[in-house]
Predict the 3D structure of the following.
Amino acid sequence: MTGDNSVVRLDQTDKVFHTRHFFSRDPKTQIRHFYQKRDVHAVRDVSLGVAPGEIFGLLGPNGAGKTTIVKMISGLVRPTGGAVYVDGLEVERKRLQVLRRVGVVLEGTRTCIWPLTPMENLSYFGNLKDVRGKVLRKRATELLEFIGLAEKRDVQVRQLSQGQKQKLAICIALIADPPVILLDEPTTGLDVQSSRAIKDKIVEMTRVQGKCCLVTTHDMNVAQELCDRIGIIKDGGLVACKPTDQLLDLFSEQVYEFRLDQSPDTRALEAIPGVVAARVEEQGDGPVCTVQIEPERDARSAALYGAVGEFQAQGLRLHTISHRQQNLEQVFLRLTNGQPHE
Ligand SMILES: Nc1ncnc2c1ncn2[C@@H]1O[C@H](COP(=O)(O)OP(=O)(O)OP(=O)(O)O)[C@@H](O)[C@H]1O
Ligand SMILES: [Mg+2]
């Protein structure tokens, strides 16, 4: 998983946030509680690698630890255990060199300077990363053009809409043409055309220019469409990390749809060994019984024969049997609801 050619590598990385809540004097008892300590284990023993030319998707429920991982790669949060490397450089030790190699867009933060215009922001952040003069002007103009912000280039950022600010944050991340791009929920709040432009740009930067891109998203379509590999994180730990097509296959053999002339008794079906669950949906042309079956071969075979026999015993006419293709959303929900997959 963490191949040698990885540009971004997390090695058994851990992050615990130590938080303290201060309280004033309790008016009734007059006892003063100074503080309450609480540790949040945001990232637990995560190891993963992202190769050049690869788009890696990090998915997980709210609070799973995605942003913390992005911040650790970009040197904004210090890991409590393990190490993070960019281009073979340990982020903790070579922060400045790492910063030059990484472009990052963080969710919902004020990356840009509001009293300045988009063009001035790009000049400022470009200068910080040693991009100047003609190169800077050319790149800034191209970026604003591709993302559809050209007409706002000289308007103060405070006057831009939410989506326009997000677009500028993406341009700022790309101004120094970094080999590593970290995008924390890049398409949130963007209209359809802008999301499309950004997705196309990500594909171009990785496939054509060989950059390495890590994306976090809650949008399963974005993940399924873009990512070569996907890591699913829950409560700080990776619960799966696989190429997207393999991840989609995880549960694919388990769900079958039986189209019938009448609704079956699902309790009888669920009593068949190997059947995990059965339910009926009324569709336009009659009831469809969805049966979830254990993946193990023998159990699956017995369950399928059992189900067909049960429909016959209930006197139902069976029209079609189909094997339902899983989508990423279903896989995600199962993995994050704690279903074992291996
Ligand atoms: N600076 C901090 N201090 C204390 N706890 C923090 C801090 N930053 C994050 N956490 C906690 O760490 C956990 C992971 O947070 P993180 O922002 O990485 O989640 P996330 O996966 O990005 O979630 P979301 O999908 O909502 O963006 C959460 O429980 C959060 O409360
Ligand atoms: Mg987040």
